[in-house]
Amino acid sequence: MSRLAVKLTPGASADRIDGWDVDAEGRPVLKVRVRARPVEGEANEALVRLVAKALGVSKSTVAIQRGGQSRTKILEIAGLSGDEVKSHLTDP
């Protein structure tokens, strides 16, 4: 199981992964935009779907561990190592 820090921007024009950035403390964070609005968990659901698709895993293996009401979230991905997650989410 691996953890992934995400900075989510809801209400975007398209669902997309914008690549890696660093937070204020220098930790890597994945920048993600989704069309869904942050209403009734819609943006969180869209985030889980998008990340699962990008990783090639089912939605049930991706869960929001922390930050459900925040733009910065920690996702847990079952069945993949941290290196596998980064390699799938990094542009070739």
* Coarse shape: globular
Instruction: Name the average pLDDT.
Output: 93
Q: How many helices?
A: 2
Classification by helices and strands: alpha+beta
Largest beta-sheet characterization: 5 strands, mixed
How do the helices and strands follow one another from N- to C-terminus? EEEHEEH
Say how many strands there are.
5
| Helix amount | 10-25%
Written description of the protein model:
The protein is of the alpha+beta class and 92 residues long. The protein contains two helices and five strands, in the order βββαββα. It has helices at residues 42-55, 82-89, and strands at residues 2-9, 16-22, 28-33, 62-66, 72-77. It has a five-stranded mixed sheet with strand order 2-3-1-5-4. A hairpin with a 5-residue loop joins β2 and β3 (28-33). It is globular. It starts with a strand and ends with a helix. The mean pLDDT is 93.
Secondary-structure topology with pairs:
Blueprint: E1 2-9, E2 16-22, E3 28-33, H1 42-55, E4 62-66, E5 72-77, H2 82-89
Parallel strand pairs: 1-3
Antiparallel strand pairs: 1-5, 2-3, 4-5
Core attributes:
five-stranded mixed β-sheet; 24% helix; 35% strand; 2 helices; 92 residues; alpha+beta
Précis, in short:
This protein is α+β, with helices and mostly antiparallel strands and 92 residues long. The protein has helices at 42-55, 82-89, and strands at residues 2-9, 16-22, 28-33, 62-66, 72-77.
